[in-house]
Design a protein that fits this description.
single chain; alpha/beta; 7-stranded parallel beta sheet; 17% strand; binds uridine-diphosphate-N-acetylglucosamine
Length: 341
Protein backbone atom coordinates (compact mmCIF):
# COMPACT_ATOMS: atom_id res chain seq x y z
CA UNK A 1 0.00 0.00 0.00
CA UNK A 2 1.30 3.44 -0.94
CA UNK A 3 1.60 5.86 1.95
CA UNK A 4 -0.81 8.78 1.68
CA UNK A 5 0.72 12.23 2.06
CA UNK A 6 -1.46 15.33 2.34
CA UNK A 7 0.18 18.36 0.75
CA UNK A 8 -1.49 21.66 1.62
CA UNK A 9 -0.64 24.32 -0.94
CA UNK A 10 0.34 21.54 -3.31
CA UNK A 11 -0.38 23.52 -6.48
CA UNK A 12 1.96 26.31 -5.41
CA UNK A 13 5.59 26.79 -6.34
CA UNK A 14 7.38 24.60 -3.80
CA UNK A 15 4.32 22.39 -3.24
CA UNK A 16 4.05 21.34 -6.88
CA UNK A 17 7.74 20.42 -7.11
CA UNK A 18 7.40 18.45 -3.89
CA UNK A 19 4.32 16.62 -5.20
CA UNK A 20 6.42 15.47 -8.19
CA UNK A 21 9.22 14.16 -5.98
CA UNK A 22 6.76 12.40 -3.65
CA UNK A 23 5.04 10.66 -6.57
CA UNK A 24 8.44 9.69 -8.01
CA UNK A 25 9.27 8.07 -4.67
CA UNK A 26 6.06 6.03 -4.62
CA UNK A 27 3.83 8.12 -2.35
CA UNK A 28 0.14 8.75 -2.90
CA UNK A 29 -0.31 12.54 -2.97
CA UNK A 30 -3.49 14.33 -1.89
CA UNK A 31 -3.55 18.10 -2.30
CA UNK A 32 -5.66 20.74 -0.61
CA UNK A 33 -5.30 24.20 -2.13
CA UNK A 34 -7.60 27.22 -2.32
CA UNK A 35 -5.90 28.36 -5.56
CA UNK A 36 -5.37 31.81 -4.05
CA UNK A 37 -1.94 32.02 -5.61
CA UNK A 38 -1.88 29.10 -8.05
CA UNK A 39 -3.81 27.45 -10.88
CA UNK A 40 -5.30 24.00 -11.01
CA UNK A 41 -3.65 23.49 -14.43
CA UNK A 42 -0.46 22.91 -12.39
CA UNK A 43 -1.82 19.36 -12.05
CA UNK A 44 -1.39 18.92 -15.82
CA UNK A 45 2.32 19.65 -15.43
CA UNK A 46 2.67 17.25 -12.50
CA UNK A 47 0.83 14.57 -14.48
CA UNK A 48 2.99 15.05 -17.58
CA UNK A 49 6.16 14.72 -15.52
CA UNK A 50 5.14 11.77 -13.33
CA UNK A 51 2.34 10.02 -15.22
CA UNK A 52 0.13 10.45 -12.15
CA UNK A 53 -2.44 13.15 -11.45
CA UNK A 54 -2.60 13.92 -7.75
CA UNK A 55 -5.98 14.15 -6.07
CA UNK A 56 -6.98 17.80 -5.47
CA UNK A 57 -9.64 19.35 -3.25
CA UNK A 58 -10.12 23.09 -3.61
CA UNK A 59 -10.90 24.82 -0.33
CA UNK A 60 -9.34 27.00 2.32
CA UNK A 61 -8.00 25.15 5.36
CA UNK A 62 -8.92 28.18 7.48
CA UNK A 63 -12.44 26.82 6.98
CA UNK A 64 -12.41 24.27 9.78
CA UNK A 65 -15.68 22.60 8.84
CA UNK A 66 -14.38 21.80 5.37
CA UNK A 67 -11.11 20.55 6.81
CA UNK A 68 -12.86 18.26 9.28
CA UNK A 69 -15.07 16.99 6.49
CA UNK A 70 -11.92 16.26 4.42
CA UNK A 71 -10.31 14.22 7.21
CA UNK A 72 -13.52 12.34 7.93
CA UNK A 73 -13.48 11.15 4.30
CA UNK A 74 -9.71 10.61 3.95
CA UNK A 75 -8.39 8.20 6.55
CA UNK A 76 -4.89 6.75 7.00
CA UNK A 77 -2.91 9.82 6.08
CA UNK A 78 0.72 9.10 7.04
CA UNK A 79 2.00 12.67 7.01
CA UNK A 80 1.08 16.23 6.15
CA UNK A 81 3.39 18.67 4.41
CA UNK A 82 2.01 22.12 5.16
CA UNK A 83 2.92 24.70 2.51
CA UNK A 84 -0.33 26.65 2.29
CA UNK A 85 0.42 30.17 3.49
CA UNK A 86 0.82 33.78 2.40
CA UNK A 87 4.45 34.65 1.76
CA UNK A 88 4.91 38.25 0.62
CA UNK A 89 6.97 40.18 3.14
CA UNK A 90 5.89 43.68 2.00
CA UNK A 91 2.20 42.79 1.79
CA UNK A 92 2.34 41.37 5.31
CA UNK A 93 3.42 44.77 6.64
CA UNK A 94 0.38 46.40 4.99
CA UNK A 95 -2.10 43.65 5.94
CA UNK A 96 -0.82 42.04 9.15
CA UNK A 97 -4.17 40.65 10.26
CA UNK A 98 -4.67 38.83 6.95
CA UNK A 99 -1.28 37.21 7.46
CA UNK A 100 -1.82 36.25 11.08
CA UNK A 101 -5.30 34.88 10.37
CA UNK A 102 -4.37 32.98 7.24
CA UNK A 103 -1.03 31.53 8.31
CA UNK A 104 -1.87 30.77 11.94
CA UNK A 105 -5.55 29.77 11.84
CA UNK A 106 -4.78 27.28 9.06
CA UNK A 107 -1.95 25.77 11.10
CA UNK A 108 -4.06 25.50 14.27
CA UNK A 109 -6.91 23.90 12.32
CA UNK A 110 -4.49 21.36 10.85
CA UNK A 111 -2.92 20.48 14.21
CA UNK A 112 -6.34 20.04 15.81
CA UNK A 113 -7.41 17.81 12.93
CA UNK A 114 -4.19 15.79 13.30
CA UNK A 115 -5.07 15.13 16.94
CA UNK A 116 -8.69 14.32 16.19
CA UNK A 117 -7.96 11.98 13.27
CA UNK A 118 -4.67 10.54 14.58
CA UNK A 119 -2.42 11.87 11.82
CA UNK A 120 1.03 11.45 13.37
CA UNK A 121 3.47 13.47 11.24
CA UNK A 122 3.87 17.06 10.07
CA UNK A 123 6.47 18.77 7.90
CA UNK A 124 6.26 22.55 8.18
CA UNK A 125 7.45 25.17 5.66
CA UNK A 126 9.51 27.55 7.69
CA UNK A 127 12.00 30.12 6.54
CA UNK A 128 15.42 31.59 7.22
CA UNK A 129 13.46 34.76 7.95
CA UNK A 130 13.14 33.47 11.54
CA UNK A 131 16.83 34.33 12.10
CA UNK A 132 16.51 38.01 11.17
CA UNK A 133 20.04 39.35 10.62
CA UNK A 134 22.18 36.69 12.34
CA UNK A 135 25.29 37.77 14.18
CA UNK A 136 27.27 34.73 13.03
CA UNK A 137 27.38 33.44 9.45
CA UNK A 138 26.81 30.89 8.10
CA UNK A 139 23.82 30.51 10.38
CA UNK A 140 23.15 27.27 12.27
CA UNK A 141 19.82 26.01 13.62
CA UNK A 142 20.72 26.90 17.20
CA UNK A 143 21.34 30.59 16.40
CA UNK A 144 19.15 32.84 18.55
CA UNK A 145 16.02 33.98 16.74
CA UNK A 146 15.79 37.75 16.37
CA UNK A 147 12.48 39.62 16.66
CA UNK A 148 10.78 39.10 13.30
CA UNK A 149 11.20 41.94 10.83
CA UNK A 150 7.72 41.50 9.30
CA UNK A 151 4.34 40.00 10.20
CA UNK A 152 5.10 37.29 7.62
CA UNK A 153 8.33 36.42 9.45
CA UNK A 154 6.47 36.47 12.72
CA UNK A 155 3.93 33.94 11.42
CA UNK A 156 6.85 31.57 10.75
CA UNK A 157 8.35 32.10 14.22
CA UNK A 158 4.98 31.73 15.95
CA UNK A 159 4.09 28.80 13.68
CA UNK A 160 7.24 26.97 14.75
CA UNK A 161 6.44 27.70 18.41
CA UNK A 162 2.85 26.44 18.05
CA UNK A 163 4.12 23.20 16.53
CA UNK A 164 6.88 22.75 19.12
CA UNK A 165 4.42 23.24 22.00
CA UNK A 166 1.87 20.90 20.42
CA UNK A 167 4.49 18.17 19.96
CA UNK A 168 5.70 18.50 23.55
CA UNK A 169 2.14 18.16 24.82
CA UNK A 170 1.20 15.17 22.65
CA UNK A 171 3.49 12.19 22.18
CA UNK A 172 1.46 11.01 19.18
CA UNK A 173 2.48 13.96 17.04
CA UNK A 174 5.93 14.47 15.51
CA UNK A 175 7.07 17.35 13.36
CA UNK A 176 9.96 18.67 11.31
CA UNK A 177 10.29 22.38 10.53
CA UNK A 178 12.32 23.10 7.42
CA UNK A 179 13.89 26.53 7.29
CA UNK A 180 14.26 27.37 3.62
CA UNK A 181 16.77 29.86 2.35
CA UNK A 182 15.94 31.33 -1.11
CA UNK A 183 14.34 28.77 -3.47
CA UNK A 184 14.72 29.55 -7.18
CA UNK A 185 14.51 27.79 -10.54
CA UNK A 186 11.98 25.38 -11.94
CA UNK A 187 11.59 21.73 -12.86
CA UNK A 188 14.06 20.89 -15.68
CA UNK A 189 11.13 19.77 -17.85
CA UNK A 190 9.84 23.41 -17.74
CA UNK A 191 6.37 21.95 -17.08
CA UNK A 192 6.05 23.45 -13.59
CA UNK A 193 7.65 26.49 -11.98
CA UNK A 194 6.99 29.70 -10.09
CA UNK A 195 3.90 31.62 -11.26
CA UNK A 196 3.81 34.96 -9.49
CA UNK A 197 0.58 36.94 -9.90
CA UNK A 198 1.11 40.55 -10.94
CA UNK A 199 4.48 42.20 -10.43
CA UNK A 200 6.92 39.75 -8.83
CA UNK A 201 8.39 40.66 -5.44
CA UNK A 202 11.17 38.08 -5.55
CA UNK A 203 14.43 38.48 -7.38
CA UNK A 204 14.52 35.62 -9.87
CA UNK A 205 10.98 35.95 -11.32
CA UNK A 206 11.70 39.67 -11.68
CA UNK A 207 14.93 38.85 -13.53
CA UNK A 208 13.29 36.39 -15.92
CA UNK A 209 10.32 38.69 -16.63
CA UNK A 210 12.70 41.59 -17.33
CA UNK A 211 14.83 39.45 -19.61
CA UNK A 212 11.69 38.36 -21.45
CA UNK A 213 10.70 42.01 -21.94
CA UNK A 214 7.71 42.11 -19.60
CA UNK A 215 9.44 44.61 -17.28
CA UNK A 216 11.66 47.52 -18.33
CA UNK A 217 14.51 46.85 -15.95
CA UNK A 218 15.34 45.13 -12.68
CA UNK A 219 15.62 47.47 -9.73
CA UNK A 220 18.46 46.29 -7.54
CA UNK A 221 17.82 47.32 -3.98
CA UNK A 222 21.06 48.89 -2.84
CA UNK A 223 24.79 48.37 -3.39
CA UNK A 224 26.04 50.12 -0.28
CA UNK A 225 25.79 47.15 2.09
CA UNK A 226 28.68 45.94 4.21
CA UNK A 227 29.43 43.00 1.89
CA UNK A 228 32.39 42.40 -0.47
CA UNK A 229 30.67 43.95 -3.51
CA UNK A 230 28.14 46.08 -1.60
CA UNK A 231 25.08 44.02 -2.69
CA UNK A 232 22.81 41.95 -0.39
CA UNK A 233 23.78 38.33 0.05
CA UNK A 234 21.40 35.33 0.08
CA UNK A 235 21.64 31.55 -0.24
CA UNK A 236 19.79 30.56 -3.42
CA UNK A 237 18.89 26.88 -3.77
CA UNK A 238 17.26 24.99 -6.62
CA UNK A 239 13.58 24.27 -5.92
CA UNK A 240 13.99 20.63 -7.00
CA UNK A 241 16.72 20.13 -4.38
CA UNK A 242 14.44 21.77 -1.84
CA UNK A 243 11.51 19.55 -2.87
CA UNK A 244 13.63 16.43 -2.37
CA UNK A 245 14.36 17.44 1.22
CA UNK A 246 10.64 17.17 1.94
CA UNK A 247 10.59 13.57 0.78
CA UNK A 248 13.53 12.83 3.06
CA UNK A 249 11.75 14.53 5.97
CA UNK A 250 8.56 12.55 5.35
CA UNK A 251 10.51 9.29 5.28
CA UNK A 252 12.37 10.22 8.46
CA UNK A 253 9.08 10.76 10.28
CA UNK A 254 7.13 7.84 8.84
CA UNK A 255 10.05 5.43 9.33
CA UNK A 256 10.56 6.79 12.88
CA UNK A 257 14.17 7.77 12.30
CA UNK A 258 13.75 11.16 13.93
CA UNK A 259 15.86 11.91 17.01
CA UNK A 260 13.18 13.89 18.83
CA UNK A 261 9.52 14.72 18.38
CA UNK A 262 10.31 18.15 16.97
CA UNK A 263 13.29 18.82 14.73
CA UNK A 264 14.46 21.85 12.75
CA UNK A 265 16.71 21.88 9.68
CA UNK A 266 18.28 24.60 7.56
CA UNK A 267 17.85 23.98 3.85
CA UNK A 268 20.38 25.91 1.83
CA UNK A 269 23.53 25.43 -0.23
CA UNK A 270 25.91 26.99 2.26
CA UNK A 271 27.02 29.56 -0.35
CA UNK A 272 26.35 33.25 0.02
CA UNK A 273 25.64 34.91 -3.34
CA UNK A 274 25.24 38.66 -3.90
CA UNK A 275 22.48 40.14 -6.04
CA UNK A 276 25.15 41.17 -8.56
CA UNK A 277 26.54 37.62 -8.66
CA UNK A 278 22.99 36.29 -9.15
CA UNK A 279 22.51 38.62 -12.14
CA UNK A 280 25.86 37.53 -13.58
CA UNK A 281 24.92 33.87 -13.13
CA UNK A 282 21.66 34.48 -15.00
CA UNK A 283 23.50 36.17 -17.87
CA UNK A 284 26.14 33.44 -18.01
CA UNK A 285 23.63 30.58 -17.90
CA UNK A 286 21.24 32.00 -20.50
CA UNK A 287 23.39 34.23 -22.70
CA UNK A 288 20.80 36.99 -22.18
CA UNK A 289 21.92 40.44 -21.07
CA UNK A 290 19.84 41.90 -18.25
CA UNK A 291 18.90 45.56 -17.91
CA UNK A 292 19.17 46.67 -14.32
CA UNK A 293 19.63 49.77 -12.23
CA UNK A 294 20.69 50.17 -8.61
CA UNK A 295 18.09 52.00 -6.52
CA UNK A 296 17.63 52.61 -2.78
CA UNK A 297 17.62 49.78 -0.28
CA UNK A 298 14.29 47.96 0.18
CA UNK A 299 12.89 48.51 3.68
CA UNK A 300 13.01 45.32 5.74
CA UNK A 301 15.77 43.65 3.70
CA UNK A 302 18.50 42.09 5.75
CA UNK A 303 22.09 42.59 4.61
CA UNK A 304 23.35 39.06 4.36
CA UNK A 305 22.37 35.53 5.24
CA UNK A 306 23.44 32.09 4.16
CA UNK A 307 23.01 28.67 5.67
CA UNK A 308 25.22 26.28 7.45
CA UNK A 309 23.46 23.18 6.08
CA UNK A 310 25.72 20.66 7.89
CA UNK A 311 22.98 19.38 10.16
CA UNK A 312 20.68 18.59 7.22
CA UNK A 313 23.63 17.16 5.27
CA UNK A 314 24.57 14.79 8.09
CA UNK A 315 21.25 13.94 9.71
CA UNK A 316 19.01 13.87 6.65
CA UNK A 317 21.68 12.76 4.22
CA UNK A 318 20.44 15.59 2.00
CA UNK A 319 22.41 18.22 0.19
CA UNK A 320 21.88 20.50 -2.77
CA UNK A 321 23.26 19.24 -6.07
CA UNK A 322 22.22 21.89 -8.60
CA UNK A 323 24.40 24.91 -9.26
CA UNK A 324 23.25 28.51 -9.29
CA UNK A 325 23.70 28.63 -13.07
CA UNK A 326 21.57 25.51 -13.54
CA UNK A 327 18.85 27.01 -11.38
CA UNK A 328 18.90 30.25 -13.40
CA UNK A 329 18.73 28.31 -16.67
CA UNK A 330 15.65 26.35 -15.53
CA UNK A 331 13.98 29.57 -14.33
CA UNK A 332 14.57 31.04 -17.80
CA UNK A 333 13.30 27.92 -19.61
CA UNK A 334 10.15 28.06 -17.49
CA UNK A 335 9.58 31.77 -18.21
CA UNK A 336 9.82 30.99 -21.93
CA UNK A 337 7.50 28.01 -21.58
CA UNK A 338 4.70 29.96 -19.86
CA UNK A 339 4.88 32.94 -22.19
CA UNK A 340 4.65 30.72 -25.28
CA UNK A 341 1.64 28.80 -24.05
C1 LIG B 1 11.98 36.93 1.52
C2 LIG B 1 12.02 36.38 2.91
C3 LIG B 1 11.86 34.89 2.88
C4 LIG B 1 10.61 34.52 2.15
C5 LIG B 1 10.70 35.05 0.75
C6 LIG B 1 9.41 34.68 0.05
C7 LIG B 1 13.31 37.56 4.55
C8 LIG B 1 14.68 37.82 5.10
N1 LIG B 1 13.26 36.71 3.53
O1 LIG B 1 13.20 36.58 0.90
O2 LIG B 1 11.77 34.41 4.18
O3 LIG B 1 10.44 33.14 2.15
O4 LIG B 1 10.88 36.47 0.80
O5 LIG B 1 8.85 35.65 -0.68
O6 LIG B 1 12.33 38.08 5.01
N2 LIG B 1 15.97 42.09 -4.89
C9 LIG B 1 16.28 43.12 -5.76
N3 LIG B 1 15.33 43.51 -6.66
C10 LIG B 1 14.09 42.93 -6.74
C11 LIG B 1 13.80 41.86 -5.84
C12 LIG B 1 14.77 41.47 -4.94
O7 LIG B 1 17.37 43.70 -5.71
O8 LIG B 1 13.27 43.33 -7.56
C13 LIG B 1 17.00 41.64 -3.93
C14 LIG B 1 16.60 41.82 -2.49
O9 LIG B 1 17.00 43.07 -1.99
C15 LIG B 1 17.34 40.65 -1.81
C16 LIG B 1 17.42 39.59 -2.90
O10 LIG B 1 17.17 40.26 -4.12
O11 LIG B 1 18.64 41.05 -1.52
C17 LIG B 1 16.38 38.49 -2.70
O12 LIG B 1 15.10 39.08 -2.55
P1 LIG B 1 13.76 38.20 -2.59
O13 LIG B 1 13.79 37.29 -3.76
O14 LIG B 1 12.61 39.14 -2.49
O15 LIG B 1 13.85 37.28 -1.30
P2 LIG B 1 14.13 37.65 0.23
O16 LIG B 1 13.68 39.02 0.54
O17 LIG B 1 15.53 37.28 0.53
Amino acid sequence: MKKKILVTGGTGYIGSHTAVELINEGFDVLIIDNLYNSEKEVLDGIEKITGTRPYLEIFDICDNEKLIDFFSRNKDISAIIHFAAYKAVGESVRKPLNYYRNNLVSLINLLEAMKKYSVPNLVFSSSCTVYGQPEKLPVTEDAPLQPAASPYGNTKQVGEAIIRDTVSSDENIKAIALRYFNPIGAHPSALIGELPRGVPENLVPYITQTAYGLRDELKVYGNDYDTPDGYCIRDYLHVVDLAKAHVVAVKRLTEEKNKSGYEVFNLGTGNGVSVLEAIQAFERATGVKLKYKVVDRRPGDIEKIWANPSYANEELGWKTVSTLDEAMKTAWDWENHIRKK
